[in-house]
Each structure stands twice: as structure tokens, then as C-alpha cells.
Amino acid sequence: MNNEQPINTDSPKDWHQETQVSWNTNASIWDTKMGDDGNDFHRLLVRPATEKLLGVKVGDRILDIGCGNGIFSRRLASLGAKVVGIDFSKQLINCAIGRTQAPDAIAYHVIDATDETALLELGENSFDAAISAMVLMDMAEIAPLFRALTKLLKPQGCFVFSVMHPCFNNPHITMVAEETESNGEIQTCCSIKVPKYLQPTITYGLALRNQPKPHPYFHRPLHLLLGEAFRVGFVLDGLEEPAFPSDYPDNYLLSWGGNFSEIPPVLVGRLKLLAA
Asked: Which is one GO molecular function term here (predicted)?
């Protein structure tokens, strides 16, 4: 990763445009890689934890924020939900529409999740729940979304989000492998070195190793990430930190997998509004 810069909350629009260009450029390869059901990161970590906190009921109307090629929208529809999937990438929305076999259950829209006005046009008090699966760290600003969610959700609604774990999977970490000897045997111990955490930063990175254009990651420590939600009246009432099982095969020694079974690469949280 390169070009690390502190997040400038006063002028996020240029970074927002850069992010949009990146995801439109990468849409095709991302769609091919994730397919209809996602990769193991999604299937084993993100999806189970999100569904546990969400508790989908048949007939629930759910907003999928940053739906990409519709992986989670389709999953929610299969569980009986009525889904509205939005993304600011027209190319990804086209991929989602092309992969959706039951169009009556999902409505896709090209909507910018940083545009509070556009979000509110979806209808106030019209969603039982909202999700954003691995999206917030790709957004130049998140305050407009949280403000809009206070109006979009029904009184008992919730917002379930997943992000790269800010503590253990931020853009500044280094994966470390060390050899130690114990009782005459050489053992390999894998760990995470975290030189930076508290300073919010923007860093280019690759979600997929072969994507054509790096995209900006917006690292926010927990007090800033959750602080935007707390500021508008949300409370955190559910939390999951999924990790790969110890017997999960590692494609590389220093890659997320069984070697890091005690370190969660993902944080999943559930937010609800304080009662009026």
C-alpha cells in the first residue's frame, strides 16, 4: 500500500470520486471473483455473523447498502426478505441485476450512500433493517449515512455492518511468522504487528490481488467509526469478531486463514436507535 494520508473530514468529495472510479473500474473482475455466492471470507466470516445479528424474518424489508454484485441481497431474498440493494457503482449494479434470478424480491438502485438526500428518497420509516457488508471502510464519509438511517429505519429497526477489523486488519498491519523451538521441535507462530491504529488514514490497497486499479481504504479507529453512530442516537447492542477456524487451509503462510485463527480479520456489529 502507498500514498498514506490522514483523513480530511472537511473535504471528502475528491476521495469519494476517486473511490467511485476505482469500483467502477474493478467491477467486472470483482463480479467474476465473488460470483453468485462470494468467497470464503464472505461465506465463512461475514455472512454467518451478519445473519446471526440480523435475525431475518420472512417479509422483512431490508436495505443492502453497498450491495456490489448483489451477493447479500440475493441471500436475504432467499430467506424471505424484501430487499432494496443500492450501490454507487453503476457497473456493479448491472452485475447484480444480471445475476438475480428472482427480480420481484430485490429492487436495485444506483444510489450514493454518502448522499443523505438520495437515501431519504427511499422512504422514511420503511425498512425493518439495513446492512452494509464490508462497505464502511470504503466510504470517504459515513456521517450522512448514519443520519439517514435514523429516518429510514422503522422504530424497532437495526443496522448491521461489517468492516475489516480496525484493530487487527487495518491498512498498516504487518503479518509476521516466527520460528520457535519447543521441546526439541521447531514451531511456526503467526502474529500481527500493529504499528498504527489511532490516526484515521486513507491508504490505497487491493481487495483482490489482480484488480486493475487500487482503491482507497478509509481506516477509522473504533471511537471514530462508532462515534458517528452514537452521535445520532444509535447504540451498539451486538458484536461478533469472526476468525477462520484453525484447520482452515492457508493459501500462503502469511494470509488470513488457520494460521491466524485467534485473530479476527472482521468486525460485525448491530446498531439500534435509542428509544424516544
From this structure: methyltransferase activity
